[in-house]
Task: inverse folding
């Protein structure tokens, strides 16, 4: 945690390189910090709130439209329109509940890089229902955009689609990647070059030996979606690197209480 990373193309030759230090906590706001301030999930407003709170990460979900726009939304539908079979123009006829339009990934990343030197952008690539070739294209396009925007230092890619993560690593071997499904052992994931596991917490309850195994292999450890203090405490006691939560304020508060108890 708290790794210093050089940003910017030509970081080694240019004096304008920026230094970034991620917040030294484990808090990843799931779909942004949406709940307390009543922001829509996956809105730019929720992302900005996660950054304002000082979360170490803010998670969001990415789909591709029928005309190849990458957009940020959780469900595969938006206002009843299947995103994969709708054009971007059809989607922007509707808004989020706060009046925002559905963010493109470009807009979302640009917003996330603004006045932010501490919050990772945790980019979930949603699986495509339209076949492997399209899934590969989604992964390629996401990595291409991240490169174009020089956003790589911020990004952790996560997915339930193992092959999408492998595709990302082909395009960017240094990418941070975490697998979500929970059906592969840390050793298998590590062998394939994926850098972390982000499993439902119940997977770690059933297979607690995977925690030590992942640490031994140098994998990042993340769990979703943890909203309960007892569970948060269990994961903190087990040294998790990240905890993905709908309740980032609650987890930040718990971390503060634990620091005070120790101090
Ligand atoms: Mg997600």
Result:
């Amino acid at each position: 945690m708290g790794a210093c990373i050089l940003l910017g193309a030509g970081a080694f030759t240019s004096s304008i390189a920026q230094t970034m230090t991620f917040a030294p906590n484990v808090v990843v706001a799931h779909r942004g910090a949406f709940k307390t301030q009543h922001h829509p999930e996956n809105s730019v407003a929720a992302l900005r709130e996660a950054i304002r709170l000082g979360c170490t990460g803010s998670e969001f979900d990415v789909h591709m439209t029928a005309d190849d726009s990458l957009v940020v939304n959780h469900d595969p539908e938006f206002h009843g329109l299947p995103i994969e079979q709708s054009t971007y123009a059809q989607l922007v006829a509707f808004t989020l509940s706060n009046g925002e339009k559905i963010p493109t990934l470009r807009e979302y990343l640009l917003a996330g890089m603004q006045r932010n030197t501490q919050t990772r952008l945790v980019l979930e690539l949603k699986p495509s229902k339209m076949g492997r070739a399209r899934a590969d294209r989604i992964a390629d396009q996401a990595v291409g955009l991240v490169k174009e925007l020089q956003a790589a230092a911020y990004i952790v890619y996560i997915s339930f689609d193992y092959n999408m993560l492998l595709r990302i690593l082909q395009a960017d071997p240094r990418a941070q990647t975490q697998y979500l499904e929970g059906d592969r052992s840390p050793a298998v994931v590590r062998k394939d070059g994926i850098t972390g596991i982000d499993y439902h917490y119940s997977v770690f309850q059933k297979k607690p030996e995977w925690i030590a195994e992942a640490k031994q292999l140098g994998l990042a450890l993340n769990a979703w979606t943890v909203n309960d203090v007892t569970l948060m405490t269990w994961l903190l006691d087990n040294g998790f690197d990240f905890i993905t939560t709908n309740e980032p304020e609650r987890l930040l508060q718990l971390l503060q209480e634990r620091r005070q108890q120790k101090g």
Notes: Confidence is low (pLDDT under 50) at residues 8-17.
